[in-house]
Amino acid sequence: xxxxxxxxxxxxxxxxxxxxxxxxxxxxxxxxxxxxxxxxxxxxxxxxxxxxxxxxxxxxxxxxxxxxxxxxxxxxxxxxxxxxxxxxxxxxxxxxxxxxxxxxxxxxxxxxxxxxxxxxxxxxxxxxxxxxxxxxxxxxxxxxxxxxxxxxxxxxxxxxxxxxxxxxxxxxxxxxxxxxxxxxxxxxxxxxxxxxxxxxxxxxxxxxxxxxxxxxxxxxxxxxx
Length: 225
Prior knowledge:
Blueprint: E1 3-9, E2 13-20, E3 25-32, E4 37-39, E5 42-45, H1 47-62, E6 70-76, E7 82-85, E8 95-96, H2 104-113, H3 126-133, E9 144-147, H4 148-157, E10 162-164, H5 165-168, E11 196-198, E12 203-206, E13 221-224
Parallel strand pairs: 1-6, 6-13, 10-11
Antiparallel strand pairs: 1-2, 2-3, 4-5, 5-8, 7-9, 12-13
Helix pairs in contact: 2-3
C-alpha cells in the first residue's frame, strides 16, 4: 500500500504525518525542539537539532506504519530561516531564525535596489540575513545559502542547492518571471550561493543509495514545500 509522508518544522517542534492514497491519515508524530538561542535581535538555532528531531520523529512513526511503503516525502519549515553550508551541506554557523532582525543595515541595502512589491524587504527577510552572514567568518567556505526546509531535504536526498518558490520569495526570487532578478547584481553577493528554485510540491529527486537507512529504507521522491 503506497504511503506519503509530510514533515513540518515549526518553532517548537518537528511533526510528521503519514497518509495513504485516499488521503486518510494513518499515523502522526511530533518531537519537541529546544527553543532558539536569543540575544537581543539575534535568534539562532543549531541545524543539528532539526536532524536529531527528525530521526526521533521517524522512529516513532516506524512503530505505527511501515516506512518501506512510503513513496514520496514533502518537507516544509519556518519561512525565512536561513543558513550557510559548505559543498557537502555541513552548516558553517547556526541558522538565523525567521524572527532574527539584526540585519538592519543589510535590509537598507536591499530597500535601495529592490522593487517596492518585493517580499525580500525587511531585516527578517532571507536576503538581508544572507547579506549579514556574508560578512561573517562562515562565508569563507560557503557554497549554499539554504532555508530550513531546503537543508533538511538536502540531507535526506544527499544533494544540496535546491529551494522552492515559497521560501525563495524572501530571498529575492521573482515568482512572476520565475528567475533570480537582475537587481540582485547591485548587491555584494555571490550569485552562485543562490539555490535552484522549483515550484512548491515539485519533485526534486530521489534518495540516493548511500542515504538509505533503516529509518528511510526506500528511494523516496522528495518534493519542496
